[in-house]
Protein backbone atom coordinates (compact mmCIF):
# COMPACT_ATOMS: atom_id res chain seq x y z
CA UNK A 1 0.00 0.00 0.00
CA UNK A 2 1.31 3.47 -0.87
CA UNK A 3 1.78 6.19 1.73
CA UNK A 4 1.58 9.97 1.90
CA UNK A 5 2.50 12.69 4.38
CA UNK A 6 -0.04 14.06 6.83
CA UNK A 7 -0.17 16.52 9.73
CA UNK A 8 -1.65 14.23 12.37
CA UNK A 9 -3.20 15.40 15.65
CA UNK A 10 -2.17 12.92 18.35
CA UNK A 11 -4.20 14.50 21.14
CA UNK A 12 -5.99 17.72 22.22
CA UNK A 13 -3.58 20.62 22.47
CA UNK A 14 -0.68 18.55 21.20
CA UNK A 15 1.63 19.60 18.35
CA UNK A 16 0.83 18.16 14.94
CA UNK A 17 2.97 15.16 14.03
CA UNK A 18 4.24 15.19 10.43
CA UNK A 19 4.22 11.54 9.52
CA UNK A 20 3.42 9.14 6.71
CA UNK A 21 0.12 7.30 6.74
CA UNK A 22 -1.45 4.76 4.35
CA UNK A 23 -3.16 6.22 1.30
CA UNK A 24 -6.80 5.05 1.26
CA UNK A 25 -8.82 3.90 -1.71
CA UNK A 26 -12.04 5.83 -2.33
CA UNK A 27 -15.24 4.47 -0.87
CA UNK A 28 -18.16 4.04 -3.28
CA UNK A 29 -19.15 7.73 -3.17
CA UNK A 30 -15.74 9.27 -2.45
CA UNK A 31 -13.22 11.18 -4.52
CA UNK A 32 -9.51 10.96 -3.64
CA UNK A 33 -7.90 14.40 -4.04
CA UNK A 34 -4.19 15.18 -4.27
CA UNK A 35 -4.00 18.37 -2.21
CA UNK A 36 -2.23 21.35 -3.76
CA UNK A 37 -3.56 24.00 -1.36
CA UNK A 38 -5.23 23.82 2.06
CA UNK A 39 -6.90 26.74 3.84
CA UNK A 40 -6.92 27.19 7.62
CA UNK A 41 -10.09 27.96 9.57
CA UNK A 42 -10.86 29.05 13.15
CA UNK A 43 -12.66 25.72 13.58
CA UNK A 44 -9.38 23.91 12.93
CA UNK A 45 -7.72 25.72 15.82
CA UNK A 46 -10.67 25.03 18.16
CA UNK A 47 -10.66 21.32 17.35
CA UNK A 48 -6.89 20.98 17.64
CA UNK A 49 -6.84 22.78 20.99
CA UNK A 50 -9.84 21.09 22.59
CA UNK A 51 -10.41 17.82 20.75
CA UNK A 52 -14.10 18.80 20.54
CA UNK A 53 -16.11 16.25 18.59
CA UNK A 54 -13.13 14.04 17.76
CA UNK A 55 -13.99 10.40 18.31
CA UNK A 56 -10.46 9.01 18.64
CA UNK A 57 -6.81 9.85 18.11
CA UNK A 58 -4.72 10.06 16.01
CA UNK A 59 -6.95 12.31 13.91
CA UNK A 60 -6.53 14.44 10.80
CA UNK A 61 -8.28 17.82 10.74
CA UNK A 62 -8.98 20.37 8.02
CA UNK A 63 -11.90 21.15 5.74
CA UNK A 64 -10.73 23.26 2.79
CA UNK A 65 -8.75 21.52 0.05
CA UNK A 66 -8.02 22.20 -3.61
CA UNK A 67 -6.07 19.98 -5.98
CA UNK A 68 -6.31 17.21 -8.55
CA UNK A 69 -8.62 14.18 -8.61
CA UNK A 70 -6.56 10.98 -8.25
CA UNK A 71 -9.32 8.34 -8.12
CA UNK A 72 -13.08 8.04 -7.73
CA UNK A 73 -15.36 5.49 -6.07
CA UNK A 74 -17.49 2.99 -7.94
CA UNK A 75 -20.74 4.95 -7.38
CA UNK A 76 -19.41 8.39 -8.30
CA UNK A 77 -21.45 9.48 -11.35
CA UNK A 78 -19.78 10.04 -14.70
CA UNK A 79 -20.67 13.74 -14.68
CA UNK A 80 -18.74 14.28 -11.42
CA UNK A 81 -15.05 15.29 -11.62
CA UNK A 82 -12.86 12.44 -12.83
CA UNK A 83 -9.13 11.65 -12.42
CA UNK A 84 -6.95 14.54 -13.55
CA UNK A 85 -9.61 17.21 -12.99
CA UNK A 86 -8.82 20.37 -11.04
CA UNK A 87 -11.22 20.56 -8.09
CA UNK A 88 -11.99 22.12 -4.75
CA UNK A 89 -13.69 20.15 -2.00
CA UNK A 90 -15.12 20.29 1.49
CA UNK A 91 -13.29 17.61 3.46
CA UNK A 92 -15.70 16.25 6.12
CA UNK A 93 -13.26 15.81 9.00
CA UNK A 94 -15.49 17.70 11.44
CA UNK A 95 -18.62 15.76 10.45
CA UNK A 96 -16.71 12.45 10.48
CA UNK A 97 -15.32 13.17 13.98
CA UNK A 98 -11.69 13.47 12.92
CA UNK A 99 -11.59 10.28 10.82
CA UNK A 100 -8.02 10.39 9.44
CA UNK A 101 -8.83 9.61 5.80
CA UNK A 102 -11.23 12.55 5.56
CA UNK A 103 -9.17 15.45 6.95
CA UNK A 104 -7.65 18.05 4.62
CA UNK A 105 -4.31 18.36 6.45
CA UNK A 106 -2.53 15.80 4.27
CA UNK A 107 -1.28 15.18 0.76
CA UNK A 108 -4.14 12.86 -0.25
CA UNK A 109 -7.64 13.21 1.19
CA UNK A 110 -11.03 11.57 0.65
CA UNK A 111 -14.02 13.86 0.02
CA UNK A 112 -17.61 12.75 -0.71
CA UNK A 113 -18.31 13.58 -4.35
CA UNK A 114 -21.33 15.72 -3.46
CA UNK A 115 -18.92 18.20 -1.82
CA UNK A 116 -16.49 18.46 -4.75
CA UNK A 117 -16.64 21.25 -7.34
CA UNK A 118 -14.75 21.44 -10.67
CA UNK A 119 -12.38 24.38 -10.73
CA UNK A 120 -12.09 26.85 -13.64
CA UNK A 121 -8.55 27.30 -14.94
CA UNK A 122 -8.54 31.00 -14.08
CA UNK A 123 -8.84 30.29 -10.33
CA UNK A 124 -5.64 29.18 -8.59
CA UNK A 125 -5.54 26.36 -6.08
CA UNK A 126 -4.75 28.71 -3.16
CA UNK A 127 -7.66 30.98 -4.10
CA UNK A 128 -9.98 27.99 -4.46
CA UNK A 129 -9.01 26.51 -1.11
CA UNK A 130 -10.69 29.46 0.63
CA UNK A 131 -14.09 28.46 -0.74
CA UNK A 132 -15.63 25.29 0.75
CA UNK A 133 -16.09 26.02 4.45
CA UNK A 134 -17.05 29.64 3.81
CA UNK A 135 -19.52 28.82 1.04
CA UNK A 136 -21.19 25.95 2.91
CA UNK A 137 -21.42 28.02 6.10
CA UNK A 138 -22.90 30.97 4.22
CA UNK A 139 -25.65 28.87 2.67
CA UNK A 140 -26.24 27.05 5.96
CA UNK A 141 -26.73 30.50 7.49
CA UNK A 142 -29.35 31.46 4.93
CA UNK A 143 -31.12 28.17 5.52
CA UNK A 144 -31.09 28.87 9.27
CA UNK A 145 -32.52 32.35 8.66
CA UNK A 146 -35.30 30.99 6.44
CA UNK A 147 -33.75 32.19 3.18
CA UNK A 148 -32.82 28.91 1.46
CA UNK A 149 -30.98 28.36 -1.79
CA UNK A 150 -33.10 29.50 -4.73
CA UNK A 151 -34.76 32.39 -2.89
CA UNK A 152 -34.70 35.85 -4.43
CA UNK A 153 -35.98 39.21 -3.28
CA UNK A 154 -36.83 42.11 -5.56
CA UNK A 155 -35.85 45.72 -4.79
CA UNK A 156 -39.50 46.38 -3.97
CA UNK A 157 -39.30 43.90 -1.07
CA UNK A 158 -36.76 46.14 0.72
CA UNK A 159 -35.50 43.13 2.63
CA UNK A 160 -32.14 43.69 4.34
CA UNK A 161 -29.58 41.73 6.31
CA UNK A 162 -26.70 42.71 8.57
CA UNK A 163 -23.53 40.64 8.23
CA UNK A 164 -21.38 41.17 11.30
CA UNK A 165 -17.72 40.33 10.63
CA UNK A 166 -17.88 40.99 6.91
CA UNK A 167 -14.14 40.78 6.16
CA UNK A 168 -13.78 37.15 7.32
CA UNK A 169 -13.98 34.34 4.78
CA UNK A 170 -17.49 33.43 5.98
CA UNK A 171 -18.42 37.11 6.01
CA UNK A 172 -17.28 37.76 2.45
CA UNK A 173 -19.10 34.61 1.28
CA UNK A 174 -22.22 35.76 3.12
CA UNK A 175 -22.02 39.19 1.47
CA UNK A 176 -21.72 37.73 -2.02
CA UNK A 177 -24.49 35.19 -1.52
CA UNK A 178 -26.74 37.81 0.12
CA UNK A 179 -26.33 40.02 -2.93
CA UNK A 180 -27.27 37.09 -5.19
CA UNK A 181 -30.41 36.60 -3.09
CA UNK A 182 -31.47 40.18 -3.75
CA UNK A 183 -30.99 41.32 -0.17
CA UNK A 184 -29.89 44.81 0.82
CA UNK A 185 -26.57 44.08 2.49
CA UNK A 186 -25.17 45.94 5.49
CA UNK A 187 -21.87 44.73 6.93
CA UNK A 188 -19.31 45.54 9.59
CA UNK A 189 -15.53 45.51 9.27
CA UNK A 190 -12.42 47.51 10.01
CA UNK A 191 -12.28 50.69 7.88
CA UNK A 192 -9.46 49.42 5.63
CA UNK A 193 -11.78 46.68 4.31
CA UNK A 194 -14.84 48.81 3.57
CA UNK A 195 -14.14 49.47 -0.13
CA UNK A 196 -13.39 45.80 -0.76
CA UNK A 197 -16.63 44.63 0.85
CA UNK A 198 -18.63 47.13 -1.19
CA UNK A 199 -17.00 45.71 -4.32
CA UNK A 200 -18.23 42.28 -3.24
CA UNK A 201 -21.80 43.52 -2.85
CA UNK A 202 -22.25 45.25 0.49
CA UNK A 203 -24.51 48.29 0.24
CA UNK A 204 -23.02 50.01 3.27
CA UNK A 205 -20.22 49.02 5.65
CA UNK A 206 -19.74 50.17 9.24
CA UNK A 207 -16.75 50.26 11.55
CA UNK A 208 -17.55 47.67 14.21
CA UNK A 209 -15.06 49.33 16.58
CA UNK A 210 -16.93 52.66 16.62
CA UNK A 211 -18.51 53.48 19.97
CA UNK A 212 -21.80 54.40 18.31
CA UNK A 213 -21.90 51.60 15.70
CA UNK A 214 -25.19 50.18 17.03
CA UNK A 215 -26.92 53.57 16.89
CA UNK A 216 -25.39 54.31 13.47
CA UNK A 217 -26.64 51.08 11.92
CA UNK A 218 -30.12 51.47 13.42
CA UNK A 219 -30.39 55.05 12.13
CA UNK A 220 -29.14 54.09 8.65
CA UNK A 221 -31.59 51.21 8.30
CA UNK A 222 -34.47 53.44 9.37
CA UNK A 223 -33.41 56.17 6.96
CA UNK A 224 -33.13 53.67 4.10
CA UNK A 225 -36.67 52.45 4.75
CA UNK A 226 -35.86 48.74 4.64
CA UNK A 227 -36.80 45.82 6.87
CA UNK A 228 -33.92 44.29 8.81
CA UNK A 229 -35.01 41.44 11.04
CA UNK A 230 -32.17 39.00 10.32
CA UNK A 231 -28.46 39.08 11.16
CA UNK A 232 -25.70 36.75 10.01
CA UNK A 233 -22.96 36.72 12.65
CA UNK A 234 -19.88 35.58 10.74
CA UNK A 235 -17.53 36.38 13.62
CA UNK A 236 -17.57 38.49 16.76
CA UNK A 237 -19.82 38.84 19.80
CA UNK A 238 -23.59 38.49 19.91
CA UNK A 239 -24.53 41.59 21.88
CA UNK A 240 -24.22 44.41 19.30
CA UNK A 241 -26.25 42.54 16.69
CA UNK A 242 -28.87 41.58 19.26
CA UNK A 243 -29.20 45.22 20.31
CA UNK A 244 -29.61 46.31 16.68
CA UNK A 245 -32.31 43.72 16.00
CA UNK A 246 -34.16 44.61 19.20
CA UNK A 247 -34.13 48.31 18.34
CA UNK A 248 -35.38 47.74 14.79
CA UNK A 249 -38.00 45.12 15.74
CA UNK A 250 -39.71 46.26 18.97
CA UNK A 251 -42.52 43.74 18.44
CA UNK A 252 -40.04 40.87 18.23
CA UNK A 253 -39.70 38.24 15.53
CA UNK A 254 -36.02 38.87 14.73
CA UNK A 255 -33.48 36.10 14.18
CA UNK A 256 -29.69 35.98 14.46
CA UNK A 257 -27.75 33.12 12.86
CA UNK A 258 -24.33 32.63 14.46
CA UNK A 259 -21.46 30.90 12.66
CA UNK A 260 -19.40 30.78 15.90
CA UNK A 261 -20.64 28.25 18.44
CA UNK A 262 -23.21 29.78 20.79
CA UNK A 263 -22.27 29.38 24.43
CA UNK A 264 -24.90 27.95 26.80
CA UNK A 265 -24.68 31.10 28.92
CA UNK A 266 -24.81 33.49 25.93
CA UNK A 267 -26.77 36.70 26.55
CA UNK A 268 -30.43 36.73 25.51
CA UNK A 269 -32.41 39.70 24.29
CA UNK A 270 -36.20 39.69 24.26
CA UNK A 271 -37.64 39.38 20.78
CA UNK A 272 -34.39 38.11 19.23
CA UNK A 273 -33.94 34.39 18.56
CA UNK A 274 -30.34 33.22 18.32
CA UNK A 275 -29.62 30.09 16.28
CA UNK A 276 -26.38 28.29 15.50
CA UNK A 277 -25.84 28.06 11.74
CA UNK A 278 -27.02 24.64 10.57
CA UNK A 279 -27.68 22.74 7.37
CA UNK A 280 -31.04 20.94 7.05
CA UNK A 281 -31.27 18.41 9.89
CA UNK A 282 -32.86 15.60 7.87
CA UNK A 283 -30.05 13.56 6.30
CA UNK A 284 -31.64 13.26 2.86
CA UNK A 285 -32.46 16.96 2.77
CA UNK A 286 -28.93 17.80 3.91
CA UNK A 287 -27.36 15.69 1.17
CA UNK A 288 -29.60 17.31 -1.43
CA UNK A 289 -28.80 20.80 -0.14
CA UNK A 290 -25.04 20.23 -0.09
CA UNK A 291 -25.20 18.69 -3.55
CA UNK A 292 -27.01 21.76 -4.90
CA UNK A 293 -24.36 24.04 -3.39
CA UNK A 294 -21.26 22.25 -4.68
CA UNK A 295 -22.52 20.60 -7.86
CA UNK A 296 -24.88 23.25 -9.20
CA UNK A 297 -24.67 26.69 -7.60
CA UNK A 298 -20.91 26.99 -7.03
CA UNK A 299 -19.69 25.71 -10.44
CA UNK A 300 -22.05 28.04 -12.27
CA UNK A 301 -21.26 31.00 -10.02
CA UNK A 302 -17.49 30.53 -10.39
CA UNK A 303 -17.72 30.17 -14.16
CA UNK A 304 -19.76 33.36 -14.55
CA UNK A 305 -17.79 35.33 -11.98
CA UNK A 306 -20.92 35.95 -9.92
CA UNK A 307 -19.00 34.53 -6.95
CA UNK A 308 -15.26 35.04 -6.47
CA UNK A 309 -12.86 33.53 -3.93
CA UNK A 310 -12.51 35.90 -1.00
CA UNK A 311 -10.88 37.40 0.98
CA UNK A 312 -7.34 37.56 -0.48
CA UNK A 313 -5.14 34.62 0.50
CA UNK A 314 -1.81 34.71 2.32
CA UNK A 315 0.33 31.70 1.48
CA UNK A 316 2.41 30.33 4.36
CA UNK A 317 5.84 28.88 3.62
CA UNK A 318 6.56 25.32 4.67
CA UNK A 319 3.64 23.23 3.41
CA UNK A 320 2.11 20.94 6.02
CA UNK A 321 4.79 22.00 8.51
CA UNK A 322 3.32 25.53 8.47
CA UNK A 323 -0.07 24.44 9.79
CA UNK A 324 0.96 24.56 13.45
CA UNK A 325 2.10 28.19 13.40
CA UNK A 326 -0.66 29.10 10.99
CA UNK A 327 -3.34 28.01 13.43
CA UNK A 328 -1.64 30.01 16.18
CA UNK A 329 -1.99 33.05 13.94
CA UNK A 330 -5.64 32.19 13.30
CA UNK A 331 -6.20 32.00 17.06
CA UNK A 332 -4.68 35.46 17.51
CA UNK A 333 -6.96 36.86 14.81
CA UNK A 334 -6.64 37.37 11.06
CA UNK A 335 -8.24 40.39 9.39
CA UNK A 336 -9.27 40.52 5.74
CA UNK A 337 -7.24 37.55 4.50
CA UNK A 338 -7.24 33.76 4.42
CA UNK A 339 -4.21 31.73 5.51
CA UNK A 340 -3.32 28.94 3.08
CA UNK A 341 -0.56 26.34 2.79
CA UNK A 342 0.63 25.01 -0.56
CA UNK A 343 1.82 21.48 -1.26
Please state the second-level CATH architecture of the largest domain: Alpha-Beta Complex
| Beta-strand percent range | 25-35%
Order of helices and strands: EEEHEEEEHHEHEHEHEHEEHEHE
Q: Give the fraction of residues assigned to helices.
A: 25-40%
Number of strands: 15
Compute the average pLDDT. Answer: 96
**Name of the CATH superfamily of the largest domain:** Medium-chain alcohol dehydrogenases, catalytic domain
Q: How would a textbook summarize the main sheet?
A: 7 strands, mixed
Total domains:
2
**Amino- and carboxy-terminal Cα gap:** 22 Å
Task: Please state the CA-atom Rg, rounded to the nearest Å.
Answer: 20 Å
CATH topology category name of the largest domain: Quinone Oxidoreductase, Chain A, domain 1
Global shape: globular
Structural class: alpha/beta
CATH C-level label of the largest domain: Alpha Beta
Low-confidence stretches: none
Query: What's the tally of helices?
Result: 9
| Multimerization status | single chain
Task: Describe what this molecule looks like in 3D.
With 343 residues, the protein is of the alpha/beta class. It has 2 domains: 3-131 and 309-342, Quinone Oxidoreductase, Chain A, domain 1; 141-276, Rossmann fold (3-Layer(aba) Sandwich). 29% of the residues lie in helices and 26% in strands. The chain is built from 9 helices and 15 strands. Strands 3, 4, 5, 6, 7, 14 and 15 form a 7-stranded mixed β-sheet that branches. Strands 10-9-8-11-12-13 form a 6-stranded parallel β-sheet, with helices on both faces. It has a two-stranded antiparallel ribbon with strand order 1-2. α3 (132-144) crosses α4, α3 (132-144) crosses α8 (283-304) and α6 (213-224) runs parallel beside α7 (239-248). Belongs to the zinc-containing alcohol dehydrogenase family. Residues 13-341 form the Enoyl reductase (ER) domain.
Amino acid sequence: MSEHQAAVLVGPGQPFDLTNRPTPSPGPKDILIQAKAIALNPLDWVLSATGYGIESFPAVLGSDVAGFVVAVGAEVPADAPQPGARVVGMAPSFFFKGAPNYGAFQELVLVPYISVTPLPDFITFPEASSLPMAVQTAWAGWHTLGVPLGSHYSPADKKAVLIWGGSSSVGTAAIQTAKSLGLVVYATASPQHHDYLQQLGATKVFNYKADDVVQEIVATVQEDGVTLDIVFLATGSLQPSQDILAALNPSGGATLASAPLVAADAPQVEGVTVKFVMLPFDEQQQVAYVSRIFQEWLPESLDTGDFVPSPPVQILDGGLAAIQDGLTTVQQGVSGQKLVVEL
